[in-house]
Specification:
This protein has 212 residues and is of the alpha/beta class. It has one domain (4-210): TIM Barrel. The chain has six helices and ten strands. It has helices spanning 13-21, 41-48, 66-76, 88-98, 172-179, 199-210, and strands spanning 4-7, 26-30, 56-62, 80-84, 101-108, 126-131, 161-163, 183-186, 191-193, 196-197. The strands form two sheets. An eight-stranded parallel β-sheet has the order 7-6-5-4-3-2-1-8. Strands 9-10 form a two-stranded antiparallel sheet. Strand 1, helix 1 and strand 2 (26-30) form a beta-alpha-beta unit. The N and C termini lie close together (9 Å). Its EC number is 5.3.1.24.
Length: 212
C-alpha cells in the first residue's frame, strides 16, 4: 500500500514549497507558543494560501481552547486538527465544534501506552502514535525522540493512524516495514536546528517515502 507523508512545523515559503514539490500529502502548522515552530494566525494564512486543495493542511495544538482552534481553522483553512495532550472527551468536543477531521496524538514509551487508543474511538478520526518525551519536556513532540517500533507488533489500531517520532530519511523505510504505517509524520527529522527546516532534508525524506 502506498505510503504518504506529512511534513510538520513548516514556517517559511521555501520549506513549504519544498514539501509540496516533493509530494507531501499533508503539511503541518504549529499553534503552540512554547514551540520553536509556533506561528501566528497571519503567518499560517499566508502559507496556507500556497497549499493546493489536494494537500491537507493540519493544525497542531496542545490541549487548546475553542477560540484558538476556531481562529487557526479559519486563518489557515485547516483540513484537520492534530491534538496533543488532550483528553478523549475534549477531543470529541473539539471535533464537534470545529467540524474538521481530528487526530489524537498518543505518546508511546511502553506497550501499555497503546491501550489509550481505544479511549479515542468515537472521539477522533485518526490516531497519531508519537514518541513520549521526557516528563519535564516543554514540548510533546518535535524533539527527535523515537519509540521502540516493536511495541506495535501484533497491535491492531482501532482507528486510522499515522506514525511519528524521530523519523528521518535514513530510518523511515525501517519504521514503515516494522509498523505497517501508511502515513508518516516528521518534523525535527528534516531540520538543521529546532524550528529550522532544511529544504534538502525535506526532499530527501520525501524521496525515501516515494521509494517505499
Amino acid at each position: 500500500m502506498p505510503v504518504s507523508a506529512k511534513i510538520c512545523g513548516l514556517s517559511t515559503t521555501a520549506t513549504l514549497d519544498a514539501a509540496l514539490a516533493s509530494g507531501a500529502s499533508h503539511v503541518g502548522f504549529v499553534f503552540f507558543p512554547p514551540s520553536p515552530r509556533n506561528m501566528s494566525f497571519d503567518q499560517a494564512a499566508a502559507l496556507a494560501a500556497r497549499v493546493p486543495d489536494h494537500v491537507a493542511r493540519v493544525g497542531v495544538f496542545v490541549d487548546p481552547d475553542d477560540q484558538t482552534i476556531a481562529r487557526a481553522a479559519q486563518a489557515a483553512r485547516l483540513s484537520a486538527i492534530q491534538l496533543h495532550r488532550t483528553a478523549p472527551d475534549r477531543v470529541a468536543h473539539l471535533r464537534r465544534s470545529a467540524g474538521l477531521e481530528t487526530w489524537a496524538a498518543i505518546a508511546i514509551k511502553v506497550r501499555g501506552d497503546l491501550d489509550q487508543a481505544r479511549e479515542y474511538v468515537g472521539a477522533a478520526d485518526r490516531l497519531l502514535f508519537d514518541a513520549k518525551t521526557p516528563a519535564d519536556a516543554a514540548l510533546p513532540g518535535g524533539m527527535g525522540v523515537r519509540f521502540d517500533w516493536s511495541l506495535m507488533n501484533g497491535f491492531r489500531p482501532p482507528l486510522p493512524w499515522a506514525l511519528s517520532g524521530g523519523l528521518d530519511a535514513a530510518n523511515v523505510a525501517e519504521a514503515v516495514e516494522r509498523t505497517g504505517a501508511t502515513l508518516v509524520d516528521t518534523s525535527s527529522g528534516v531540520e538543521d536546528a529546532p524550528g529550522v527546516k532544511s529544504v534538502d532534508k525535506i526532499a530527501a525524506f520525501l524521496q525515501s517515502v516515494r521509494q517505499l
